[in-house]
Structure formats: C-alpha cells, structure tokens
Automatic annotation (TrEMBL), chains A, B:
<keyword id="KW-0129">CBS domain</keyword>
<keyword id="KW-0812">Transmembrane</keyword>
<dbReference type="InterPro" id="IPR006667">
    <property type="entry name" value="SLC41_membr_dom"/>
</dbReference>
<keyword id="KW-1133">Transmembrane helix</keyword>
<comment type="similarity">
    <text>Belongs to the SLC41A transporter family.</text>
</comment>
<dbReference type="GO" id="GO:0015095">
    <property type="term" value="F:magnesium ion transmembrane transporter activity"/>
</dbReference>
<dbReference type="InterPro" id="IPR006669">
    <property type="entry name" value="MgtE_transporter"/>
</dbReference>
<dbReference type="InterPro" id="IPR038076">
    <property type="entry name" value="MgtE_N_sf"/>
</dbReference>
<dbReference type="InterPro" id="IPR006668">
    <property type="entry name" value="Mg_transptr_MgtE_intracell_dom"/>
</dbReference>
<dbReference type="InterPro" id="IPR046342">
    <property type="entry name" value="CBS_dom_sf"/>
</dbReference>
<feature type="transmembrane region" description="Helical">
    <location>
        <begin position="318"/>
        <end position="339"/>
    </location>
</feature>
<dbReference type="Pfam" id="PF03448">
    <property type="entry name" value="MgtE_N"/>
</dbReference>
<keyword id="KW-0479">Metal-binding</keyword>
<dbReference type="GO" id="GO:0005886">
    <property type="term" value="C:plasma membrane"/>
</dbReference>
<dbReference type="Pfam" id="PF00571">
    <property type="entry name" value="CBS"/>
</dbReference>
<keyword id="KW-0460">Magnesium</keyword>
<dbReference type="InterPro" id="IPR000644">
    <property type="entry name" value="CBS_dom"/>
</dbReference>
C-alpha cells in the first residue's frame, strides 16, 4: 500500500512542466496525499518543483511545504512574496505556521505576519513564536476544543461544533473556568455516551495530565508515553490553558532523540542528514575526528615509552591494534547499554551493583575471548608462549577496565547534567584505546622486564 | 509534573505489607496511575510486589501487568491460577491480552483461554494469537467502531454509542459493506458537524489508508507516520476489516527500531536492557567481540608482513593504533549517515553521486586532519620528516577508503535485504582497522623501500 514514485511519473511531470500543461499537472497530482507530492517535488530540481508548487492550490501546498526537505522549502519560500507566504500560512495549524515563520529572516517575518488574513490566527502564531523550540510552548498548537465548567452539555455540544471546525483532531475536550484556568477534561467517549441534559461540572474529569509552557520537549514525550496520552494540555504560569500538544509532534521528538543518540554514538555531533551539504557534514564530523586524532597522538607517545621492547620483543607491537580495538568495542557496548537505559528510564539498582555486574560480565566474556586468543596466538599466529600469556592477560584486564570506563563515564556525565550519549563513540573508543595500550605494555614490561 | 517515587513511600508500603494493612495499601495506591504503580512494584521485591498486586482491583492490576518489567510479570503470573489470570485478561484490550497470553506456556494458554468470561473477547484474543508478532496482525486490536454503509446517521450514532463502550479511543469510524469489507471511513469531526439525518453512503470518505494483516510492523509505522495517522484499519486477504492499529502501539515499534539500530552500531546483536541477566548480555555482546578478535588476528598477521621495517623504522609501529582508530571512526560516521538515511527514507540521488560526495567530504576532512597530524608529528611527536609524510599520506588515503567502505557496505547490505545497521559498529571498525593498517604500511614500504 505504500507509495512509490515511478521514473515514468517523474518524466511525465517534467514533460508537462516544459509544455506548461497546468491542467494536466493538477489532474495528476490533485488526488495525491501531500506527503507523496512533497516526495515527488524533492526528486525534481528547484525550478521544476517551484513550478508545480505554484500550479497547485494553497490548501494543498501549505501542507506540502511542511513535508519538503529543508533546502527545497527554503528555496521555494525565497521565491514567494510575503503575501503568498501568508496565504500558505493561513491554511496551516498555528504550530506548523509558527515553525515556518521561525525559519524566515527577521524583516520577512514581520511582513509575512502583517499579511496574514485571519487576525486571531495571526495573534496565535505570534504568541507561539516567543517560546523556545525545545519546550512545550514551542511544540504546542493553539487549536483545541474547550468548554466552560458552568455550561450544560447542550451549550457545550453547540460550542464544540463551532470550535471543532478549526481543529483537525479533537482528542480531548478541556474544561476551564471563567478565567480560562484548566480545571479538567471531558473525554470524547463520555460525550458520545452521555445524555445531552447533563451539566458539565457534574461529568468532567478532575484528574488530568498537563505540562507547563516551559517543560522540556523530551520530558513532554516521556509523560505522554508513560501515561499513554494522545494529547496533553499546556498551561502558563498562572494555570491558564494556552495550547495543546498532540502525539504526532511527540513522535518527531522521540525519533529525533533516538537519532541524535545514534549519531553521537557514531561520532557525529550535529543533526545532519545524508543530503545535507558537505560543509554541514564537516562541521558535524570533524570535531570528533580531531579528538580521535589527538587521542592518537597520545597513543603514539604511550607506545614510545615502550620503545625499548622493540629490539627483543617486536612481536608485542603487532598486537597493539587488536588490544586497542577490543578495548574500544567493549567500552562502546557497555556505554550503549547505560545510555539506552538512561534514555528509557530502565536503570534500577545502585552504581556499585551495576559496576559489579559489568565486572562479572567482563570476566565471563574475557575468559571466553582469552581462550580463543591464547589458542589462536599459538596455532594461528605462531608467537612464543610467553607473548601469548602476556597478550591474553592483557586482554582480560583491558576488557574489565574498558567496561568499567564504559559504564562509569555516561553515568557520571548524566549526574552532571551532560548528555551521556556524548560518552559513546569516539570519546570512549579513544580513551579506551589509550588505556588498553598502556595496560598491555605495562603487563608486558612486568613479565618480560624490558 | 512527572511522577517520582520517594524512599519514604517505599518504606511506608513495605511497613503496610508487613502489617498486612490492606486498607491502607489500597488507600495509598488507588488514586495512582497504573504506570506509576508498576514503577513502584518494580522497585519492590517479588513477594512484596505480588502481595500488593493481590490487594488491588483487577481493573487496575490488569493495566499494571502490562507495564511491569518482564521478570516481575513472569513471576507474578506464575503465582496466579489460570482463573485469576483470565480475570486480568478480561479487563484488557484484545491485543494486550493476546500479548500476555503469548508469553504463557502452551498448557497454561489453553487453560487460561477456557477461563475467560466474555466469549466474544476470548474469540478475538484467540484470533489475534495466530498472527506473527512483527506483523500488522500481531499489532492490531479487535476494538474498533464500524458502521454499515447502508445505515443512516441516526442508526449509526446509536450503534456507535454501544460499540464505543468497549473502545477506549474511537479515532475513526470505519464503514463496511454487508460482507464486512472495508469501504471507507467517517471522521469523528464530520460526525460532530453533520446533521443526524444524512445517509452514511452520502458522507463517508472513500479514500482511506489501510494495511494487510501480514504487513510488517516497521512498514505500518512508516505509513502511519508518513500520512500522519493516529489509527489505521487492518484487512485480511479478502479485504474484510479484521482489526485496527493505534499510534501508541506504533510508538513502541518506532522506538524499538531506533534502539535496535543503536545497539547494532554499538556491537550488541540482540535486544537487551541494562537489567537483563549476565547470560543474556553475553549472548548479545560476545558474538561481535569474537568477530573483532578474529579481525584482530588478521591485523596481527598484516603487521607481521612488515616486520622488516621494525629494525630501521620502528617508529612506524607507534602510529598503527592512530591510523586504525581514524579508519574506524571515519567508517562508522559514514555508515551511520547511510543507515539513518535508509531508516528515515531520506536518501535521494544515485550511488555514484553519493560516493563522490563522500570522497569530497573525506578530502576536505582528510586535508584538515593531515595538517594537524603533520604539524603534530613534527613538533609534538618529534618524528623524522619522512615518517611525518608517510603517516600524513596514509591518513588521507585511509580516510577516503574508510568512508567509501562505510558508505558502500550498508547500501550493499540493504540491496540484498539485510539490515544495513549490521554494517555499523564492530564490523565496519574491524574491517577498516585492517584496511587502514595495510594501506599505511604499503605506503611506508613504497616510500622507504624496506
């Protein structure tokens, strides 16, 4: 059932654009979902995409705008007049409109806002612009259905019908007092199953979840998931109902958070996508590579300390990448478990018991790996027994230390309010590389006495 | 607004358990959300948790059961009779009940099902048990509101009120024909804003999204996100409406998928959580470590090929961990971008243009890193100029090759229907380690001629 763009469709559209067959274009695209049209436009070049964009109706294009890749959206917006942009925004929900306005330059912002047709809508959008984008205020929309606790169900239903015209998904009906302070909610289901003569104050639910305008977005996501909510009301400092967050906006928060952890684990420090510019990618990737390079300098220095071993025990140096790699891998595994546990709030028990568990786990893994390494070093790699003993001992020690570092560092960062995901990836591999090499050669020095 | 468990609350509960103050326990917990109670039970030991579980009403405990950690749920279920388990399941939605039954042993399953009170409910649950848990059939619930296309709105509203009693969230009203084949939907909003005299066939929306019972769960998630759906109907092979999937179940799919990619990137091959047993962790972590160790064997062999350099150019060996680490880090970055692009469906353009982009990016990053390395090797590490030249040249080459491997491998895996996330983490770091070292020493051999 999923939509797939065919090469033929693209060719057909391009032909119609060349021939300026606006009617044909409309006929082809009008029945499609805006998400599908956005994907098609992303496949075309900017001029073609803009041409189609201008052919379609603004109720369709407004939604398309939201789904486009950033650079195409920017390009199309730059070719529209403030009045044309305002026409698009008039079609959108307040939070989506505010998101698009926030991307515009300061001058253009004011012009576009002054061109908005619906004054109430404009006021709501301006109101939303002042919230931080990572807060509940930045996520919420102004579209919601609310009723006064002093109404009866009849008035309520009448009012709701009017309000629902502007709300694409009703979810909950919020109950407020005369001062617009949130008092509770009416569920749609209650409404469907209750007689119309009942008083609102008799039937509304006084227990309800809400967040404040300045609650962090990831916190909102956590609350909505925990209590299985599809919408949550947002109140200001005085408890007045100022907006509502719906689950679709929260899905983006959840995905962004997971994506970001993943990118940090891979040594990418800024949210980039495959299609972003080379410069954007460099900004995101280079810092971690520089860090890894500086870590590499230290490992060169550390190896230099053991130069004396080279003449008689040169083989030792063949094993440094193996030891470093094992230390890095073990550290990343341990830290990933902790980072994910912190993100999903599934970590229980004390720090000590957690570290003890890692040690037991390392002993078990280390023991199995040590056997493989000892046998392998003897039969496959043909090294002297004493080198095999050194490498094997080092492996077990390195695995224990690396897993302890991998467990401890993200917990420590989290304690100090730093994103623990920073500790996975290059940071942990680099520091574990260095520790691993140091431990390995120290053991070799003790045993061989060079 | 988020719930936090206090030490005092736990102590108070434990005291009441010791004294068998059931009334006090109920009073303390009855007003709490089931998700909060589940978190409290997870903090207690199994006996205490079971005690509280048995004190509370089954409408509450059923929901709590769903939220518990796996091992506690298993433990509590093992202490309940088939009849008691059936009482819990009678309170749950069909898909949640089916999930719990699926965890039971074959014998217990049959017993519990025979004890279910509501025969319709039991039939629905049994029906759900036959679907694969990673398919739309495995995700869907039987609870939904549907109306016949031949009814008028009045009959429809009456019927809906009855049906809505069993459905915790209505979302959409589905329209079917006399054979129960899905024909379209009525939106709740339309219902709120349309006169009750209208005929269903005149107002229902004939365009609608749906999935088949055997559609994969990640595919369902993609469709629901793309088209911004909060519920989607599920049809069988004959187009008959058999269930409905809601967005809250999809959030779990999205999170699990992101978590899994993250774990694969960290070299963890099975879905484990921090609190799983050491054996589970070993199963998940050891395979990748063994792979990395075998990769390490190869790197030892590769280094052995260049043993001849040791006497005169021993310093070269100090740089192997640096080169290997840079190759690994670059490879992981490149592959993470591709894996995420594939997961989010944001990759556009040809393979060739993508590889070209990676080469340009590597040249830019490589050039900057090369300058740092060259200066660093001269002033910080005190190596001869010629070693500096070799290491620097190797670094740039290694970065280019590593990024190409990192880009190409996940795309290749994806082409063959293998999860591209497998390519991140240990697999890519290990192969890039080996390639990096080989390239480095080959360059050294060409320049120094050992």
């Amino acid at each position: 059932m999923e939509f797939k763009i065919s090469k033929n469709l693209i060719l057909e559209l391009e032909q119609h654009i060349v021939n300026k067959n606006d009617k044909e274009l409309e006929a082809l695209l009008n029945d499609m979902h805006h998400a599908d049209i956005a994907e098609i436009l992303d496949e075309l070049d900017f001029d073609e995409a803009t041409y189609i964009f201008k052919v379609l109706d603004s109720d369709k294009t407004a939604e398309i705008l939201l789904e486009l890749e950033d650079d195409l959206r920017e390009n199309i917006l730059s070719r529209l007049s403030p009045k044309e942009i305002a026409e698009e925004l008039d079609e959108l929900d307040t939070n989506d409109a505010a998101d698009i306005i926030a991307e515009l330059s300061q001058d253009l912002k004011a012009e576009v806002i002054s061109e908005l047709n619906d004054v109430e809508h404009a006021k709501d959008i301006v109101d939303l612009l002042r919230y931080d984008e990572n807060s509940a205020g930045g996520l919420m929309g102004k579209e919601l259905v609310k009723v006064n606790e002093n109404w009866n169900v009849l008035t309520c239903v009448k009012e709701m019908r009017i309000q629902a015209e502007n709300v694409s998904r009703v979810h909950s009906i919020y109950v407020v007092d005369d001062e617009n302070r949130l008092k509770g909610r009416l569920s749609l289901k209650d409404l469907l199953t209750t007689s119309t003569k009942t008083q609102i104050s008799d039937i509304y639910i006084r227990k309800y979840n809400f967040v404040n305008v300045d609650t962090e977005d990831v916190e909102v996501a956590r609350i909505m998931q925990r209590y299985d909510l599809e919408a949550i009301p947002v109140v200001d400092e005085m408890g007045r109902l100022v907006g509502r967050i719906t689950i679709d906006d929260i899905i983006d928060v959840i995905r962004d958070e997971a994506d970001q952890d993943y990118q940090l684990a891979a040594g990418i420090s800024k949210d980039v996508e495959a299609d972003d510019s080379i410069l954007e990618h460099t900004k995101a990737r280079l810092p971690w590579l520089v860090l890894a390079l500086l870590g590499g300098f230290i490992s060169v220095k550390v190896l230099g300390l053991f130069e004396g071993a080279m003449l008689e025990h040169g083989e030792l140096f063949f094993f440094t990448p193996l030891i470093a790699a094992m230390a890095g891998n073990v550290g990343v595994q341990s830290s990933a478990i902790i980072v994910q546990g912190l993100a999903n709030n599934t970590l229980t028990g004390s720090l000590f018991s957690r570290l003890m568990k890692e040690v037991s786990l390392s002993l078990l893994n280390g023991f199995i790996l040590a056997i493989i390494l000892f046998i392998g070093s003897h039969f496959l790699l043909d090294v002297e027994i004493v080198i095999g003993v050194i490498v094997t001992t080092a492996l077990v020690s390195v695995i224990i230390i690396a897993s302890l570092i991998g467990t401890f560092v993200p917990l420590l960062l989290d304690k100090f309010g730093i994103d623990p995901a920073l500790a996975t990836g290059p940071f942990i591999t680099t520091s574990n590389d260095i520790c691993g090499i140091l431990i390995y050669f120290s053991i070799a020095r003790i045993i061989l006495g060079f």
